[in-house]
Amino acid sequence: MRGAPEYLVLLPQPAPLRAPSPSRPPAPDGILDPDSLPGNPNVILVSLGKLLSEDRVHPTEGEPLLCSQCGAGLLSCYDNMVNSCSFCRPAGPSAPAAPSAPGPAGVPDRLFLLNPEGPHLDPSDALLIFCIDISGSMGITSPVSSDDKTIYRTRLHLARTAVAAVCPEALRPTTRAACRPGSTKTFNNQVTLHGYEGSGDRLQRALLGLSEGGSTALGPAALLAIAMASRQAGSKVIVCTDGKANTDLGNLEVEDHDAHTLLSSTIFYQDLGEWAASKGVTVSVLSIEGTDCRLDELGRLADRTGGKVLIASPQNLHWEFEKILEDQAIATHCTVSLLFPQSLCLRGEREAEHKGTREVGNVSPHMEITLQFGAKEQDPESAVPLLSAGERVSVQLQLRYRLRDGREMLRVLTAQREVTHDSSSVLSSLSLAIIQLNSSQAGAALAVRGRFQDARAEGDAQRLLMDRALQHNCSAEEEQIYDQWKKTMEPIHGSIHDYTRRKSVVSDSQPLTDKGAALLYGMKHSNTNSISLRDKQRPQ
Hints:
Blueprint: E1 17-18, E2 43-46, H1 48-53, E3 60-61, E4 109-113, E5 128-133, E6 141-146, E7 149-154, H2 155-170, E8 182-187, E9 191-196, H3 201-208, H4 218-229, E10 236-241, H5 259-278, E11 282-288, H6 295-305, E12 309-312, H7 317-326, E13 331-339, E14 344-347, E15 355-363, E16 369-375, E17 392-403, E18 408-420, H8 423-429, H9 432-447, H10 452-472, H11 476-493, H12 514-524, H13 530-537
Parallel strand pairs: 1-18, 3-4, 5-8, 5-10, 10-11, 11-12
Antiparallel strand pairs: 2-16, 4-18, 6-7, 8-9, 13-15, 13-17, 14-16, 17-18
Helix pairs in contact: 2-3, 2-7, 4-5, 5-6, 6-12, 9-10, 9-11, 9-12, 10-11
């Protein structure tokens, strides 16, 4: 496709579509059927950060022509061509050919501006809110090196020093001649707001007056911080704590037998995360190393809003704050939809048919998601035929999102891929990096919901697929990718007991430790670069 944008290789160029092989006699013992592949090679990588930030694609104002049945961007600009939608009609040699005349959505890539009349918001009005724990445990001291000497500082001292250090950089002047407004919210048994605008001097003076004491009213503090941040999409809330929330609202300091209280808190943080995402607010959670904050529950806030779940030593709070601030949301309210012919279906998505949708919410510059698809199980009474080798099928990606200036966008990308029954063709074009990322994301998504056995099964199947790919076409780089993937997946495959609170038999109700929650939430939101960079960026 001459002149096609570079990113179209992500749809799904890593391997041709693989349809079920025709029935055949079983292979002799000891001989692997060359047309039989373990796992699922049909994986799509969508680089959301890249697709949503590209400025070389110029938008068309107004709504595109969409199929009234499945919502696909039609390959024709005429209403009377709706019956020829290639995603609604049954696939197969006898099906009518899709119209070839390109229309508004018939070109490989099209961007639509859905609300040309506004609103016109100023992204620099977004809020940055630090939500800092000042309960009694924040008075615990840690050794810090200073001028070749070791001194002891409290956790609160190190936290307020880190906030004061990162704020001037985070609030540097924007295109307006002013700084973004920001605030620090502290909580113990009370919630207190310390606000400023324009200069960090007032904030630093306020921080110096803080002292630790009292309980941990984390639930009310997070609720109030998100409510304030919700005034402007693209705002960010950073929660820093060293203990469990222990007030009535969002209480996580409960024994296992108090299931009703814990369930109520689980629902609270889950609903709070949903509400934050609906307002375009990103929430990150940072806990202190060596403490227990129930990040498996509290991390739901970050997981739903595209934020980070991190554990830091008190000495590294500054560095961790900077890492969180690097990922400024470039878009909010993002929804990803994929459409295939009726012979194919998405796996693991909400609709689980030939059209699937995933609600992503806030999108950071380096965000990538992966999706699996495959052939539907054939129903003898179904009119949908199996895909034939050599047949070309359409794949369409739709991205609906809202830019930080309030513009609502729809990007429609359409491509065609060839179906193959040839395993050698699939293995030759397989991208191990994409299969690895999908396995990490899908396995972690299952594990954070307590589905450890399903996570292992998912990883084992893809591991066998990568084994076959390496046997078929091995290189030193691919071996390195594979070795790194095995290390990444080891907590799920071999040592999940080290990351759960009860070391008994793993069950679907097994809660995660803070270390396990931070690890799995990180894997769930990883990208193709995060694994190789994980150990290089952290200070020693």
